[in-house]
User: What shape does this take?
Amino acid sequence: LLGFPFDAPKPWRTEVVGNPVRPQILEGDAARLRTKYGAPDGIPVLLVLGGSSGSARLNRLIAETRGALLPDISIIHQTGPMNAVDNPGLPGYSPMPFLNTETLADAYAAADLVVSRDAANTLTELAATRNAPILTPLLTLGSRADPPPIATRLPADGAAVPSPAPTPTAVALPTDLRAPPRLATPGDGGP
Assistant: This one.
């Protein structure tokens, strides 16, 4: 059983069934998130997802660049419990170690752009919610060495922007989130 179509070594022994996506993920409410975290209408929302344990690299990137990004955007930042960052109380910046299902669904609904590790479950949710992601690879020794097939397929189909380097830098983030990259729906051949 495959979660995403790709060239399987034995295609006659495979069936694409898709990765499971919690139905609640598709029921997000952008207005509820904006109200809860004080993100005004008309201000783009950047959602940063570092995986369940958090990404030290993504957290450092956001900590180093948030001052330049605020107040022109609102940042919802899932830091993970192991790699939390300081919260200087900046308006528009909402770091938290964990997003429960409702908050994550609302964040997907509100997000104009997502910066995320290329973890399989997150990629499946991004494809299902049609969010525009910038992907950064998993590089830790505790994770798999190769990205899941969807991590290379989404950029190939025009449905994601891969980070240009294994270690993302501030230049990997768009300067104007009011005009996020125009991305395709996975599988439709690109923008």
Observations:
- The helical segments are 30-37, 56-69, 101-110, 120-129, 149-156.
- The beta strands are 45-49, 74-78, 93-96, 113-117, 133-136, 161-162.
- The first strand starts at residue 45 and ends at 49.
